[in-house]
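Hey team,

Sharing the Sugar phosphate isomerase/epimerase run so nobody has to redo it. Sequence (429 residues) first:
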Amino acid sequence: MMNYRSMSFHQAHPNIELVKLGAKLGFNDICFQTEGGTLKPLKELRERANEKGYFKLAKELGMTISVWVHELEDYDKSWGTVTLENKLVWDKLAERYNYILTSLLPEIDYLVLTAVETEIKLTDASMLEKLVATILKVCRKNNKKLILRSFVWHPSELYNFQKAIKNIPDDVIIMTKNVPQDWHLRSIDEPLIGKVGGKNQYVELDIAGEYFRMDHVANCFTDILYRQYNSWREKGCDGISVRVDRGWQPEVYQNVVLNEAQEVNLWFLGYISTDRDPDKAWWDYACNTFGKKCAAVMIEALKTTGEVIAEGLCVERETFGDTRDKVPAINVMQEYKGSDNPRYVFDVKEGGTARAYDDNEDKVWRNPFYYNWSLFRWDESFINVYRKLRRGEPESIRRKEESYKEALLKANKSLELIASVKENLPQGA
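Structure output:
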C-alpha cells in the first residue's frame, strides 16, 4: 500500500463530490494546486476554504492537505540581487513561510514546492539547495512536511536537480512526474524515478488529460497505469499525486474526471495503491456507472480507448504537434514561428552539455515533433527515430497508416458495443 494517495486539483478548486468519491476509493490527501504568484493565490484559497469548508471536509474524511507553492515569486526589488550571500532574500522568504504556516494556512500538512515557471528560476543546484534549506527550516519548526517537485523544462535543469538532491536533507520528499517534463501517453518513464538517494519519493500523474483531449473523448489508459505503477513500487516510490481536473477559469468551467469515462482511471489507481485487485476496480466502476447488466460490455468498449487516443495523438512515440491545441499541429503546419525551443539535445550524463543540430532542414517552426516533452530530448536513443520522422521516412509513414487503421477499427468496435447496450444504460450514463 502506498502511504500518500493524493487527488490534485488545478487552481485549488476541488470538486466536493469528487473528493468524497476519492475518499471512498482510498485516497487520503487533497492537493491544492496554486499558480501565478505565492501569497495572492494562497490568500484566495484561504477565503474559499473558509467559505466552502474545504479543510473541514478533509479532516472529516480523514484526509491530509497539500498545497502548492512556487519560488521565487512575489520578488521585491528592495531585497537586492538574489544570491546565496544575500541574507535579506532568504530572511524574507523565511518570514513569508512562517506567516503561511502559522497564520494563513495552519491546517495544511504538506507544502509542495516548485522552482520553475516562476518569476525567478532557482534551478541552479546551489540556489535550489539554499531555497529548500530555508523553507525546510520553517516547515520543521511548524511540524509540516516539505515536498520538492522535480518538474523542470530542460534536461540541463534535471541534471542540476540531480546534483542538488545529493545535498538536500533526507526528510524532504521528492515528487516526480511519471514522464519527463510534461504529460504524454507514449513517453518514457521519468529518469529520476528511483534515483533520489534513498529519499521518500512520490509520483505525480495526470488522468484529467491536459495533453490528451481532456473530457472531449473517452480515454481509459489503465494498462499504461498498471505497468507504470508496478515500476514505481519496484523502485521504492511510496505515494501518488493524481491530477483529476483542469481549468484556468474553474468558476466558469472545469474539465473534471467525475462522470466521465476517465473516472475509471481514478478507481483503478485508488484500488491498486491500496493493494486491492485492479481488475475489480473496472468491474465496480462499470457496475456503479452503467449497471450490472451492461457492465461487461461497457468494460470491453472502454478498455481500448487509451490505445486509440494515443494513436490519434502520436506518430511512433512522439506527439504530432502540441496536443493541448484543438488541432495539435496547426501552428507548425502554418509555419508558425512562435516556438522558442532551441535545436539542441542535452545529454544529462555529460553534465548538461548541449549538442546543436546543423541540419538546415530541421526548422523548429515547421517541426511538429519538437517540444519540451519530446522523447529524444530526454533519451538520446530516440534521436534517430526523431530524424526519420522529421524527414518523412516512407517506412515510418507506412507504419503510421497501418496503426491508424487498426485504431479506427478498435474505435468502431467500441461504438458498436456501446450501441448494443444503449437501450439498457442508465439515464445520463
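The longest strand covers residues 64-70.

Ping me if you want the raw files.
A.
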